[in-house]
Amino acid sequence: MRGSRMTAERRSSFYLFLTPWIVGFLLFQLLPIGWGFWTSLTNRMAFSTNLKFIGLANYLKLIKDAEILLSFQTTFLYALLHTCLAIIMGLIGALLLEREVPGRGVFRTILYFPYLIPVIAVGWIFRIFLDRDTGFFNVVLLKLHLIPSAVAWLADFPLGSIVSLAIWQSGWSLIIFLGGLSTIPTELYEVSTIDGANYFRRFRHIALPLLSPFIFFQFVSSMIYAMQTFIQSFILNPRPLRGEMLFVSPPPRETFFVMARGFFEVTGKNRFAYGLSLLWMLFVVVLLITIIFIRLGGFVVYTEVEEKR
Q: What is the pTM of this model?
């Protein structure tokens, strides 16, 4: 009897502490999500009064819009380049810092610290860094006589400028790879060394297969994150930016990603229903990509667990 009463008290406490989260989720997440989906099925404009239900008309219009399809292509290309670059940089850094070198902990902190900087601050740093006239990158290249004149990186290479942000965000990948490398038994390296395997063979046949779950996790997570890139498109806009003008000027077509285009459709063109339909289509695309990657994960991820027959 006493045990059942304690169980009931624990259950009541559980629901009591969980209630604020449930209320917050319903009011500030589920309700806006439901309203957004309903709005995407209407012809709602910013100040429209003649609201009509039009079903999937906005979605059919999106599929036929060449600019929207281009945004999806550039978004996927950016996500792929961003993900691969971050993983490669993180893996290289982890392999270097895995060794016993003086000040290894300090280097780990320094390389991970940029990941903690807010994305808006990083965007402005790169905007200043890549500026055509006063940017540090052009100054160094001109001093070394590697380029004949200053290059407008933001205007001439908009996609590459944003992809370069992945270098700063590779600290997250670095930490995950360091954890993954620590799980590899040293006996495997010792046995392979006795057998005459060099460093590259040990990496190819031991480290890389055992790190495949960590690589796959980062690849899927980073792709989901990069497909929703938003603020970088506006901050690294080659047009001059001033305070309130930040979100007024649309980015170039090469970096007008889906999230940015959806935001611009809603706030810039006041097409609420059309912009929300675009964001819901992005959600479906990201969901499908995630499902496909997870399905393919069994073919590329090494595991020692045998399948049950």
A: 0.87
